Amino acid sequence: MSKNKFAIVFVGPPGCGKGTQASLLCKEKDFHAFSTGDEIRKEIATGSAFGNKLKQICDKGELVSDDIILNMVKNFIDHLDTNRVLFDGFPRTISQAENLNHLLLSDELWNVRVFDFHVDDEIVFNRILGRFSCKACGQGYNDKTLKTKVAGICDKCGGTDFIRRDDDNEKTLMNRLKAYKTMIHPIIDFYKNLGVLETVEASLNIDVVWSRISASIDGFVNS
Ligand code: AMP
């Protein structure tokens, strides 16, 4: 029986460009993205007591507990109606990686490939501390590298309200990077041992990074 379900995992520090590449993957190759960070922000936006608890954790740059995250992922997998899935920002602990594998391996049709985004801290700081987006359409910008063509007006929709993530500040970013670096090594070893790991040089420009990921995924999906 050939495996015909494809799960891609993007791991990398905040600001490595995972989100941008995730959007391209969904648009160009019909993958369905699941971002635990986005799910958490949706819950925070409801203003619920649970959302407020999550916000306190995110504002400190700490990780949300495995139980909460795995519940979200299990719920997502249980209701899945596609055979092409991208996990963005998950797994972030070895327990999350082992549990994801367990959930997917219980259905032997899944094929897993993991992309490990490498980028220097300096680039991360520039990207994260400078990033903002249009409140109306979500188009992303950067103070230094990707300004709006006309100051204060969104190129895409003409909106004039822009937002920044609460956790995109220096102190929280340092904690997020520390949390990432502490947890990532066993996850990388885990996927390396499974023979499903690929490294992405993520400091290159968006198109170059995308052409490499795209070629690799074509080989993976069509093999
Ligand atoms: P992100 O948008 O992926 O950078 O996530 C924003 C914040 O949500 C992180 O700094 C964590 O506090 C939390 N978070 C997102 N995904 C996870 C995860 N897989 N495990 C634990 N915490 C997470």
The topology string of helices and strands comes to EHEHHHEHEHEEEHEH
Largest sheet: 5 strands, parallel
Tally the beta strands.
8
Poorly predicted ranges: none
Q: What value does the Rg take, in angstroms?
A: 18 Å
Helix fraction, binned, reads 40-55%
The neighbouring-strand order within the major sheet is 2-3-1-4-8
Instruction: Determine the structural class based on helices, strands and strand pairing.
Output: alpha/beta
Provide mean pLDDT, rounded.
92
Please, how many helices?
8
Strand residue content: 15-25%
Cα-to-Cα separation, first versus last residue: 14 Å
- Small molecules in complex: adenosine monophosphate
Report the principal-axis shape: globular
Your description of this structure?
With 223 residues, the chain is α/β, with parallel strands linked by helices. Helix content is 50%, strand content 17%. The chain has a 5-stranded parallel sheet, sandwiched between helices. Strands 6-5-7 form a 3-stranded antiparallel sheet. Helix 2 (36-46) packs across helix 3. The longest helix is centred in the last third of the chain and has 25 residues, at 170-194. The protein is globular and about 50 Å long. It starts with a strand and ends with a helix. The model has no long low-confidence stretch (mean pLDDT 92). Bound molecules: adenosine monophosphate. Adenosine monophosphate (AMP) is lined by residues 14, 36-37, 40, 57-58, 61-64, 69, 89-90, 92, 96, 167, 176.
